[in-house]
């Protein structure tokens, strides 16, 4: 997260209707990989002491409900320039510098913001990120190429565009009409604008296809967690064992505080481990008599629910049962099916298999069963 210097404020413009983005909500309020676009944009500027959000008057209610408290919310106007001017006026006397950013650019990198801040700290009156034009440029006549346009010295402008606050506010007041961006007004006011490094990922969502592109970019920065679980239970009196939720006939049972489902316990601990949430004992302590003889499906369902609540889906789960007997192979598919039901995960993502310890150790001596499990969690 960016830690902006004292005196630096952020102004986020989100008052447009975004008609080119297609039907539905304005683009800044639409879902992008599980969160509204505007949520992601504001998160990029959390390290600023002062943030002003400019929204359309029709959106004031939901903006206040969602963001009131740490953010100043201002009603926008008919044009982008007028909306920015309203936000700058709200900041007057509250900051020395301001970074003005499009609410529909949710993927701005900290390095892009840092470079703009650094340029202002080094004395620039204005600074903005951009990328040099690398493609050939054409002038079109309808659907035909009419001429080639030189690309030398041309840049693709991005935001945030940073300014000395008083100077850009005065530039807006001196030129009350609309403008393509704030740099246009800064140049009209005689300010020199430093070009800082932009980013190909700093996409401005404009058209419907841009949502899919933004989701692909977010996918390159996925939060993937791996967790491992291990459990052991000794044999005792009984005529069956419960493994991964399936009762398997055997000449002994398994000893444990709950139903001693060693496979399900290992998998539950794997999910808790991926979430950095300890183990079964933390959530269902064996000292609590209510869990005596409990169905281990309760534990696994709790772990899977916790993963979903924290924004993760279970990518896959792999359980290995270690024993000389009983035979696991004939029951493995039924076990995977039962785990699928409990976790709400498609069966194709769950593996249950078995191995022996070549008659070595306590499992080789048929004193009990061990299990290891691995779970993969993927942030939605």
Can you walk through the features of this model?
By secondary structure, the chain is α/β, with parallel strands linked by helices. The chain has 12 helices and 19 strands. Strands 1, 4, 5, 6, 7, 10, 11 and 12 form an 8-stranded mixed β-sheet that branches. A 5-stranded mixed β-sheet has the order 16-13-19-17-18. A hairpin with a 2-residue loop joins strand 8 and strand 9. Helix 3 packs across helix 5 (165-174), helix 5 (165-174) packs across helix 6 and helix 8 runs parallel beside helix 10 (297-309). The longest helix has 13 residues, at 262-274.
Mean pLDDT: 94
Shape: elongated
What percentage of the residues does DSSP assign to strands (E)? 25-35%
How much helix is in the residues?
Answer: 25-40%
Low-confidence sequence ranges: none
Tally of DSSP β-strands: 19
What's the alpha carbon Rg, rounded to whole Å? 29 Å
* Terminal-residue CA separation: 20 Å
The main pleated sheet reads as:
8 strands, mixed
Judged by helices, strands and strand pairing, the structural class is alpha/beta
Oligomeric state of shown chains? single chain
- Helical segment count: 12
Quick gist of this model?
By secondary structure, the chain is of the alpha/beta class.
Keyword list:
12 helices, 380 residues, 29% strand
Write the layout of secondary structure elements.
Elements: E1 8-14, E2 31-32, E3 35-36, H1 37-43, E4 50-55, H2 60-67, E5 72-75, H3 80-91, E6 97-102, H4 110-121, E7 126-132, E8 137-141, E9 144-149, E10 155-157, E11 161-164, H5 165-174, H6 182-188, E12 193-197, H7 209-219, E13 224-236, E14 240-243, E15 246-249, E16 253-254, H8 262-274, H9 280-283, H10 297-309, E17 312-322, H11 332-343, E18 350-355, H12 361-364, E19 368-379
Parallel strand pairs: 1-4, 1-6, 4-5, 7-12, 17-18
Antiparallel strand pairs: 2-3, 6-11, 7-10, 7-11, 8-9, 13-16, 13-19, 14-15, 17-19
Helix pairs in contact: 3-5, 5-6, 8-10
């Amino acid at each position: 997260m960016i830690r902006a210097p004292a005196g630096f404020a952020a102004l986020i413009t989100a008052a447009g209707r975004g008609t080119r983005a297609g039907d539905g909500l304005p683009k800044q309020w639409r879902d992008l990989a599980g969160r509204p676009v505007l949520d992601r944009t504001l998160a990029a500027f959390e390290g600023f002491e002062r943030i002003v959000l400019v929204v359309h008057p029709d959106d004031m209610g939901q903006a206040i409900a969602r963001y009131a408290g740490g953010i100043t919310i201002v009603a926008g106007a008919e044009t982008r320039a007028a909306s920015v001017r309203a936000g700058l006026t709200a900041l007057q006397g509250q900051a020395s510098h301001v970074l003005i950013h499009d609410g529909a650019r949710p993927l701005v990198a900290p390095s892009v913001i840092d470079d703009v801040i650094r340029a202002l700290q080094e004395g620039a009156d204005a600074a903005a990120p951009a990328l040099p034009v690398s493609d050939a440029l054409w002038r079109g006549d309808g659907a035909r190429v009419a001429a080639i346009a030189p690309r030398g010295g041309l840049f693709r402008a991005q935001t945030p565009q940073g300014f000395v606050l008083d100077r850009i506010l005065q530039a807006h007041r001196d030129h009350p009409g609309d403008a393509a961006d704030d740099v246009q007004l800064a140049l009209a006011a005689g300010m020199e604008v430093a070009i800082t490094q932009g980013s190909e990922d700093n996409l401005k969502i404009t058209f419907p296809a841009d949502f899919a592109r933004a989701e692909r970019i977010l996918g390159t920065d996925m939060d993937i967690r791996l967790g491992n679980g291990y459990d052991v239970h000794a044999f005792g009196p009984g005529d069956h064992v419960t493994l991964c939720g399936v009762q398997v006939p055997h000449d002994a049972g398994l000893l444990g505080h709950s139903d001693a489902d060693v496979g399900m316990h290992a998998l539950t601990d794997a999910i808790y481990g991926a979430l950095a949430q300890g183990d079964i004992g933390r959530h269902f302590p064996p000292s609590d008599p209510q869990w005596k003889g409990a169905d281990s499906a309760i534990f696994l369902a709790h772990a899977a629910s916790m993963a979903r609540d924290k924004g993760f889906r279970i990518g896959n789960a792999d359980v290995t049962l270690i024993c000389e007997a009983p035979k696991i192979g004939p029951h493995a598919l039924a076990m995977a099916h039962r785990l699928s039901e409990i976790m709400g995960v498609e069966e194709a993502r769950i593996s249950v298999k078995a191995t022996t310890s070549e008659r070595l150790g306590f499992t080789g001596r048929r004193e009990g069963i061990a299990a290891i499990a691995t779970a993969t969690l993927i942030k939605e």
